[in-house]
Amino acid sequence: MLSRALVFGEAAQPRPLALGQALRVCACEIFESRSEAQFIELADRFLPNCFILMYTAKINPGILNLIALTRGIDRGCAIILFCDDISLDAALDAMRAGASDLLATRASTEEILRALRSKTQHQIEPAAGTGDCPLSETTAKIVGYGPSITHIREQILRAAASTANVLVTGESGTGKEVVAQLIHQNSSRRHHRFVALNCAAIPESLFESELFGHERGAFTGASASREGKLQHASDGTLFLDEIGDMPIAAQAKILRAIESRVVQRLGSNVESRVQARLVAATNQDLERLTQEKKFRKDLYFRLNVVRIAIPPLRERLEDIPVLVEHLVREFDKGPARQARQVDADVVRLFQQHDWPGNVRELRNVIESMLVLSSSRRIGLSDVPEPIRRHLHSRQPRYHDERSRILAALSSSQWNRKRAAEALHCSRMTLYRKMMKYSISGAVD
Asked: Which CATH class is domain 313-436?
């Protein structure tokens, strides 16, 4: 819930009427600043959960630096930028700096409210029906501000702006379907269907029927005509999950459908045109499967036009604190929701784990802890015994300076001033070391 908002704008720049109306509807405490120095002072003192930056011209390095500095002050806050230029390039620049959302200066009260609620309640609202690229949908489900996850957000926006087929790769539990959904939701097809098909869950004998449909009486048990997934997703997006498990026979047929854009139901001689966009995902090595002749090379080249490789959680441990905070807010629905907090010792313990199940495993552990604990503070004793025993039996992955910096930032809830004090160094020294070790939120 939005409780405090800090608004930044130049002295000659009045606050938009729609923004004022939206903030009044939210009934939040509002702070205003007219200089960068005052902005930083208020941010450090009051720790708002939403920062609103008003900038009427094109985005420049100065405003991008202020966004990065704001992200450095609060890793998990919402940063909403108002600007006349809401092009894809502007959105990518703002997102790289750490912005959560980019809105047009003349956005309506309803559009602003939708963004505020999405960013402060971690929910995705329906698209407004315009042709703009809704940046808020990209950042609401992809949690984290490390370099790798920021790059994934950029790739999602670029893929959504095109019509090319997309191949999403990554280990199980990394969020491949979430990426596919966000590509659809941020594309021009978002008002049409997103249809998912798990290629590993369908028997080979039924695969052709699932993909292309069938007519009544086409085979035993076909008591009525039925359209296939390709037709059902026409003008929308068809997500083929676990594409590496698709039978060879079905691969040849879907390749023809991709190339000709027509399908023919089982038992029918009539061809129907389809315009579905394909997004495929796999946790297998498709290059190896093509060499072993278990996956068609021509289909692989057709699908692998735009490739998005999602890193495993063990390669972005710096995102664990904000992931934990996000999951606690998502799962903890009780009356004490605002006060529930995971101890820093637990977060540090989580950062020592490889997480073979990736975000899905972390999600399950957090949900288990919240269900079984009645305390407002979630400590080491609340971690499920099998997980705690496994984590304690492991040696920390890192014993270097980077791990000490991450531990200090985590224990101070990413407050740079307190982390620098714990590390016995200046704040600027901390910023330089964060940049050196690619810990997001660092500024010059």
From this structure: mainly alpha
Q: Which pLDDT does position 444 carry in this prediction?
A: 36
In the three-class reduction of DSSP (H, G, I as helix; E, B as strand; rest coil), residue 74 is classed as coil
Label each residue of 317-345 as H, E or C. Answer: HHHHHHHHHHHHHHHCCCCCHHHCEECHH
Domain ranges (residues) in the chain? 4-138, 166-309, 313-436
Furthest-apart CA pair in the chain: how many Å? 77
CATH topology of domain 166-309: Rossmann fold (3.40.50)
pTM recorded for the entire structure? 0.65
CATH number of 4-138: 3.40.50.2300
Rounded distance between C-alpha atoms, residue 355 and residue 337, angstroms: 26
Name the pairing type of β-strands 377-378 and 271-273. unpaired
Provide the pLDDT for residue 393.
Answer: 59
| Residue type (1 letter), 182 | L
Confidence band of 136 (pLDDT split at 50, 70, 90): very low
Residues ≥6 apart with Cβ < 8 Å to 140: 118, 119, 122, 123, 124
Read off the pLDDT of each residue in 386-397 and give the average, rounded to a whole number: 61
Least confident piece of the model among 20-29, 374-383, 390-399: 390-399
CA distance readout (Å), 271 to 222, 227, 249, 405: 19, 12, 19, 61
Rounded Cα–Cα distance for residues 144 and 160 (Å): 20
Q: What one-character DSSP code corresponds to residue 266? A: B
Query: CB neighbours (10 Å) of residue 142?
Result: 19
